[in-house]
Design a protein that fits this description.
Elements lengths: L1 E9 L3 H11 L4 H9 L5 H17 L12 E19 L5 E17 L12
Antiparallel strand pairs: 1-3, 2-3
Amino acid sequence: MEARAISKYNRQSSRKVRQVADLVRGKDVEIALNTLHFSSKKASLSVEKTVRSAVSNLLNSEGGTGINPEDLYIKTIFVDEGTTARRFRAGAMGRASIIRRRTSHISVVIAEKNAKVSNKGKNK
């Protein structure tokens, strides 16, 4: 069973958020949340919030009552570029220089670890 959470229009560039997302990709949720909580990056707050939202979405779903939160891991996490707001600042010699205020979208998919091993593709 899996659940997802998407955080849109985060006021930070996707390049900076991807550095934090790479730290927790594929890890257990408990380890990932500890890593994000004690990280000094600003982006770790929004990634942690999105991971917590995905866990909450899974536990509050119809079949999520019997799921142990310790058996969850981050299946996929990716960061996309959002819209860029363009602002202008006075530049030298009467010119205007552009300032780009970048945003990002964070997508997280949480899944449950499968304890059983399937025999797909094995011939007996």
